[in-house]
Amino acid sequence: MGLLSNRVERSEIKAGDHIYTYRAVFAYSHHGIFVGGSKVVHFTPRHDANSSTETSANSYEEKYDLSSSCPTFPDCGFRQPNSGVVLTCLDCFLRNGSLYSFEYGVTPSVFLAKVRGGTCTTAMPDPPETVIHRAMYLLQNGFGNYDVFQNNCEDFALYCKTGLLIVERSGVGRSGQASSVVGAPLAALLSSPLKLLMPSPIGVATVTAGMYCMSRYATDIGVRSDVIKVAVEELAVNLGWGEGGNEEEDNGVTDQLIAM
């Protein structure tokens, strides 16, 4: 994969890969974990069964309607009640968009060269079987409430791949995409006083771009100091989402869903 694009063919992805596709004419990307069998587990704003309104994040991410039927897989769109973690087929995940593969373990220079956030991280991934276990466990037990900046689809995929969780949740989450949204105006704000010292538009633009890249790098989970490794079975208890589920039962459901 090159510096400009992480686009891949379907034949190139493997079970346990972190994949994504762009929505709304490249306005944002939607992320998920490919678990094999043409199935993807991903995180979306949930629809509260006790309310006629959807989450506030619905303008950023699409809601998957369980009543819609997939012509290929009868279990496409499976999710637990009031959960945002959903299992769909690859076609429904892509929605006619192109397929991209998220990169792990990149060098700082490559990370900074990727101008757009949400495409790579310096963090190292865990083995595929561990990644799939986390994704399928969260499909059964949920991933908390969806939040555009602190707990979105990219955060979900990053956790499945690395098991890393941010200790202090008052700021931006693991998502590089969210960091880009926050970092761009921040860089512009910080560089604005330099306009008095650097009358050249090119000079100001260069400083702004540098600050933007460094703000992205500083929030990458591979270099942050406020992240810890948390087992998926302990995730819900640690974050106050409720008690963990029955692992033996989850494993049986996992195998059945992927095989279908």
Low-confidence stretches: 51-60, 186-192
SSE-based structural type:
alpha+beta
Amino-to-carboxy terminus distance: 31 Å
Mean pLDDT: 79
Helix tally equals 8
Q: Into which percentage range does the β-strand content fall?
A: 5-15%
How large, in whole angstroms, is the Cα Rg?
Answer: 19 Å
H/E element sequence: EEEEHEHHHEHHEHH
Structural summary, described in words:
- The chain is of the alpha+beta class and 260 residues long.
- It has eight helices and seven strands; from the N terminus they run E-E-E-E-H-E-H-H-H-E-H-H-E-H-H.
- The strands form two sheets. It has a five-stranded antiparallel beta sheet. The chain has a two-stranded antiparallel sheet with strand order 6-7.
- Helix 5 runs antiparallel to helix 6.
- It is globular, with a radius of gyration of 19 Å.
- About 7% of the residues have low confidence.
Question: What is the compact description of this entry?
Answer:
This protein has 260 residues and is an alpha+beta fold.
